[in-house]
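Interim report to the steering committee. The following record documents the input for NAD-dependent succinate-semialdehyde dehydrogenase (469 residues).
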Amino acid sequence: MGEVRTIDPTTGEELASYPTATDEELETVLDRAADTARRWGQLPVEERAEGLRRLARAMRERREELAQLATAEMGKPIAESRAEVDKCAWGLEHAAELAPAALAPEPVDTGALESYVRFDPLGVVLAIMPWNFPYWQVIRAGASAMAAGNVLVLKHADNVTGCSLALGELVAAADLPPGLLAPIVVEVERVAGIIADPRVAAVTLTGSTRAGRAVASQAGAVLKKSVLELGGSDAFVVLEDADLAAAADWLVRSRFQNVGQSCIAAKRAVVVESVADELVGRVVEGVGRLVVGDPRDEKTTVGPMARRDLRDGLARQVEETKAAGAELLVGGRVLDRPGWFYEPTVLDRVPPGSPGRAEEVFGPALSVVRVPDAEAALAVANETEYGLGSNLWTSDLERARTLVGRIQAGHTAVNGMTASDPRLPFGGIKSSGYGRELALFGLRELVNVHSVVVNGPAGPPPPGGAATE
């Protein structure tokens, strides 16, 4: 039996160590999850919805404790950690509100005595989740899945193991069935075996494109449903008629919140040349107002990156992008202090093929690409392999409505920033994955869409020569 350790990224010191599950302990978790899935899935949807509301209340009651734990384990500024807990409660409550109507059988007129479509739970869902939003990533995927009658076995990132176990404890605090959301501490090498286990019906993963390809391959080999929310390199397109003051403020917020460690952060600012100098100047001023420091300090807006290797990887991307010809405007240094801090960074005139433009940059560094016009902006926005979120700034809303249909992404924010919202489906295309979380589409993602045709005692009428396949 091995162990995992959690490290405080602010100091580099160990927080705690946790033993990995033995084979016998894993068997117990899976058995309990399968038993809970049979019982939970048979409950009326209204009862499941009330259970999610209790879970939301439990999260609110432990808001400060949960927020402090997230900040300690992954370095998120404390105000953002509190906001994450609040968003989880909202997500649970919205799924509970939407579920009864969204999951109700839908009648279809086929000429039979009765025809309808049911939305039946699949059973046990393996949820493989990342560290950057240690609660919201789980709830974003899990609220809909649990409302639909499924249960989650949670394989969380090692560095937020405390957050993972806290989510499991909340299930008991909310008087929900044991096994409804069951954390497991296991090595990555054991995940393929869990996916293949006959008690597991499906898998949902939020993580890197590399991890997504591996999980999709493993799930496909055993013909199990998978949902993948993967990386992104979101474009923040600013056209010549945009409100530049507002665009700059939102660009700084989108790029540098959560220490830049967000799949849907604005990573590439694609700016029409005629307004680029003014926009970039405003962005540099905004970055100068950011406060780097201890994430437990209420004044801090940028804390440490979550792990040393992530910080070092960002430093490499910045240096290689500079070497390719980009202009460093601000930042670009590892800070000489304990912990894994990196200066908020802005790179201008980032060339094609350089890491700042071609790779996902997962940290506090913004790449600026200057373009001659809107057509060129769309081409740059779509040049990436990713297709998660996008942002378009223009004062001409009719023009915006036309242009958004040409952007290759799962979400576009016009005169705003991409953010997940429980009222809207969330997910991407291309190398950003497939499937949707949240809203109606999320509630119907991890279900068996079950068609039922009821005939009278004499059976259906003769087919009359129609094809029967």
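The chain has two domains: 3-230+432-453, 234-414. The committee is asked to note this result when reviewing the revised timeline.
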